[in-house]
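Sat 14:20. Reprocessing the chain from the morning session after the first attempt stalled halfway. Input below, unchanged.
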Amino acid sequence: MDAINAYLDQITGILQKVRETQQDVMRKAAQMLCDATLNGGSIFAFGCGHGGLLALEMYYRTGGMANINPIRAPGLNLDIDPAIMTSQLERLNDYGRIIIDNSPVKAGDVVVIHSVSGRNTVIVDAAVRSRELGAKVIALTSMEYRSVSSRHPSGTKLFENADLVIDNCGYKGDASLTVPGIAEKVAPTSTAVGAVILNAVVAQAAALVAETGRIAPVFISGNIDGGDEHNSRVIAEYKDRIHYM
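Finished this time. Tokens:
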């Protein structure tokens, strides 16, 4: 079996499905990021375990917007051993509320929450608490998980507690390939596809900001001449919306 080309075909097919089915909500998400940027709001990104990788992808990023802030909390970012503790911690009641209450999230902000299943307690609590504070929540999740039970006391999942839902069009279980001789599927798709989705949304948001005549808060690489100087100016201009400095 040529697993390399099979996986590339899977990713290509999923991205085509995203293009065909998710453009409208992606454009709405971009407008939400643009509106927050123009109106003095901050943008936050949150996820647990590998879901949190996309929060790290979005912030302090070449070609990304400077006012996107990660929400990080002990034990949820694959930062502890044994790693199984991450799975245990993301099921704790009220931990998500504690995380949001100790972040700068406020009314008028946008919180992007990535969770493939959207079923665990921390993710749902974070979405609920963000909306209680007046922030808008964009969920990036897999709608294939609608049949999976929630672990939250309310019985609801992330997509039911968001203002806007983007489907990553992936598979239940995330892994995508059936390989002869291996009972389990291999090759997850959510990180690769999710990064494309969110970078596309951010690019559209920056374009919308620019269309108003405002300067979009876009970082450039610090490894090209003039990069550090440009980024310092962006940070100074948007310092009230940047919470990771």
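The chain is about 40% helix and 10% strand.
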